[in-house]
Amino acid sequence: MIRIKLIYAYIYIMKTRVNLTIEQDTLDKAKNYASKIGVSISGLVEDYLNKITAAEQSKEIKTKLFEIVNELPKTSYPENYDFQKQYFEDNKEKYGF
What we know:
By secondary structure, the protein is mostly helical. The protein has helices spanning 24-37, 41-71, 83-95.
């Protein structure tokens, strides 16, 4: 006998009301656009806020990455150093070049 037990977990995200003051013409355009793509004005605003905050987080991550890379020890090679030639020389026995 096989017993299957299903467990459902519900995650509720609290929504908060926000009052915005915008020009009527802008609101009309936003309503028209929202109806075309099938979302609410609240959905448009929420998506926009998510995008700009995600972009900021991404920028912070990139900045941290650049700081880490800049802290790595620097190497120097002659201007005419042939990386491709060196690669093939290093790997000719291993790969049979």
